[in-house]
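Milestone M4 deliverable, item 7.
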Amino acid sequence: MNNLIFQIIDKKVRNVILLSVFSIVLTLPLNVSAQPQGRIAYAVSGFNDKIGRLDFNLHMTTFTPDGDYKTLPLNQSGMYPAWGPKGDTLYFIQRSATQSNIFSIDINNPRNKTKHTEISGTYRFLAVSPNGKKFAFNGWTNEQRQQDNQIWVLDIASGEMEAMTQIPHFGRSFFFWGITWSPNSKQIAFALERSGGLEQLYILDTETKEIDVLTELNIDFYPVWSPDGKSVLFRRWNREFDTLTTIDVETRAIKPLFDVDKQTGMWTDWSFDGQQIIYSRWGVFYLHNIPDGKTEQLFEIEGSIFVISWWKHEVLPVAPQEKLATTWADVKQSK
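Output delivered:
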């Protein structure tokens, strides 16, 4: 009888201990690794001896499990790089003489490129829909004037272009400062500079073409939609500094993350899980870990970074062709 009582008590004690341990584990903060994963594409500005002027050249960096950064110079001049959903195709805008077009390359054979625009023009801020079916960008065709600057959507399969906005110009030029797709590929967030010096964020429904104001009465630009679709990351101008900020798409709640120096050539993008933000300041890459708010310097390159595209999926490192492979271990500065 006594043995039975002790067994019952012992079982209850074990259950209490297990429940307590389980509760403690649930209350512990998640250990989110600050080590980046996957790969990024970006353009680097520099002087091109062949054409005798400043040019932008595409690069791809793969984050490896050992913490090193391996890069491929993609041997293509281009701006506004954007990944396709599978991560093996990189889209970009390339300008030649007075016109630009959208091209793509297979990163396993980056010397060969495919042209996607049937109409040339002046195009900026390329974004690829997460479902891989459409492009969004702004600009005007060669048959139009700069005042006709609008947001366009191009169907990749058919090559057909459609102007999604009809914003009146009132005889003056205006500019877009960033375009980004929602994860469901149905909406586009963009920044638009209007008269009065304000740049506001808007959301465009690509099915109805209705436009909703996201932020106002500030200078906000370079929006990037979060992978979960709940918020948009952007940069807010202040008189003394700029602030990297997020806004909840549904509630419109603003959350400042951290301040940055003005005029730093800063570009940003989310990690595939939305837990990290990579950003640049001139030629230096930084990683901001959202759960703990810590930031670390990753590596530095020669030249200035122009636009960062981080593939929105967890991936294993790609083994690049050896004849093109280089490593940032030779160029990254010690911390």
